[in-house]
Amino acid sequence: MSANKEVEYGQAINYIHHMYETRHKAFHFMLIVNAALLAIKFNSKTQTGMIGILPLSVFGFLVTTSLLLFAVRNARATAKYEGEAMRIEKELGFSLITSAHHSAIGGMNSGVYLTGVYIICALFWLCSSIYPLFLMLI
C-alpha cells in the first residue's frame, strides 16, 4: 500500500510542477502580448487618433482577461492537487508541500502577485478602451 501512495504522491508532485510551469509560461506570454500591444499603441507611425486605438485596447483587454481567467483556473487546479499531495504526505509521514507553503514570501503564494499584475494590465486596457469613447461623448 505504501508503494502505491508513493507513486500517487510522485504523480501529484509532477502535476503540481507542470501546473506551476504552465502558470509562469502563461504569465510570460501575457507580458509579451501586453508589451507588443503597448509598443503598437505608442508607436507614432501607427497612431491614427483615439478611435484607431480603440480596437487595440479592446483586444488587449480581452487577451489579458482571458489569460487572467486561465490563471485563476490553473491556480484552483494546482490548489486541488497540492491538497491531495498534502493528504498523501500526512499518510507517508513527511511534509514537503506543507513546509513550502509556510516558507513562501510573506506567507503568500506567488499566484497572488501574478494575479495582481494581470488585474493591473486588464484595468489599463479597460481604461484605454473607455477613454476614447468618453472623449467622443464630450
Low-confidence parts? none
Main β-sheet: number of strands, strand sense, barrel status?
none
**Which secondary-structure class do the elements indicate?**
mainly alpha
The coarse silhouette is elongated
List the quaternary state of the chains: single chain
Portion of residues in helices?
A: over 70%
* Tally of contiguous helical segments: 4
Strand composition percent: under 5%
What Rg, in angstroms, do the CA atoms define? 21 Å
Question: What is the mean predicted local confidence, pLDDT?
Answer: 82
Give a count of the beta strands, DSSP E runs of length 2 or more.
0
The topology string of helices and strands comes to HHHH
Give the N-to-C terminal Cα separation.
Answer: 72 Å
Tags for this model:
138 residues; single chain; elongated; mainly alpha
Describe the structure.
By secondary structure, this protein is mainly alpha-helical. It contains 4 helices and no strands. Helix 1 packs antiparallel against helix 2, helix 1 runs parallel beside helix 4 and helix 2 runs antiparallel to helix 4. The N and C termini lie far apart (72 Å). The model has no long low-confidence stretch (mean pLDDT 82).
